[in-house]
Design brief:
Distance between the termini: 61 Å
Radius of gyration: 20 Å
Strand order of the largest sheet: 1-2-3-5-4
Shape: globular
Strand content: 5-15%
Helix content: 40-55%
Number of strands: 5
Largest sheet: 5 strands, antiparallel
């Protein structure tokens, strides 16, 4: 059973009168709505230094942020939480196209800007996704999870047409995926994967500067 209470901020830091809502589930604090910086310390009070912000859960349910101890967050991830209205709308759009695996990923998968960009380029949804490429190993991880969940590995080449950055990354995608798997299996934070990603994107930037005569 969750505890819930509302705090009305009445114009503090330009928030207005709408306030924000706090829910506590599995010992984790879930915050919805616009939060002024002056209230942030209060909202994170009471947790240890090991507490984490769970951006994956926040994105799933449409919260502003979710904070909790690592074990509590693991427990929260096992709860069947209601997804955000945006995710549900994306789910319905994919379902109407007959893309069942894609619909399930849009509803419950771990999503980010670059994995959303992949989904749009390959399947046409979500319609409001951009063309963002993965900037770091965590972005890459979400992209790999998307490919696995939807079975889109054989359509990866479509991403080469999205942008020069995507083209460079796709050209060595197998190497990136293998390096990431090797590093994370050893419990590392994938520094070599990150270095390769930066090298590939840096080549794109250098080419642009050369064309511009810089």
């Amino acid at each position: 059973m969750s505890d819930e209470f509302r705090m009305q901020l009445g114009g503090i830091d330009g928030v207005g009168d709408e306030g924000f809502t706090i829910k506590t589930i599995c010992g984790c604090r879930i915050v919805y709505g616009s939060v002024p910086l002056s209230s942030f310390a209060m909202l994170t009070h009471g947790f240890s230094k090991k507490a984490l912000m769970a951006t994956d859960i926040a994105d799933l349910i449409g919260a502003t942020f979710v904070i909790g101890e690592p074990t509590a967050l693991d427990e929260l991830r096992q709860v069947d939480l209601p997804v955000s209205a945006k995710r549900h709308a994306d789910y319905l759009a994919a379902t109407n196209l007959g893309l069942i695996a894609v619909a399930m990923w849009l509803r419950k998968g771990e999503r980010g800007k670059s994995s959303n960009a992949m989904c749009k380029a390959i399947y046409g949804v979500p319609v409001d996704a951009g063309t963002e490429y993965p900037h770091d190993p965590d972005d890459l991880r979400r992209c790999l999870l998307f490919l696995e969940a939807t079975g889109a590995q054989d359509q990866l080449q479509k991403m080469a047409e999205v942008s020069p950055e995507w083209s460079r990354l796709v050209s060595r995608w197998d190497e990136l995926a293998a390096r990431f798997a090797e590093e994370t299996a050893a419990g590392k934070q994938a520094p070599k994967t990150y270095a390769l990603m930066q090298e590939l994107v840096g080549q794109t930037r250098s080419a642009r500067w050369e064309r511009a005569g810089c």
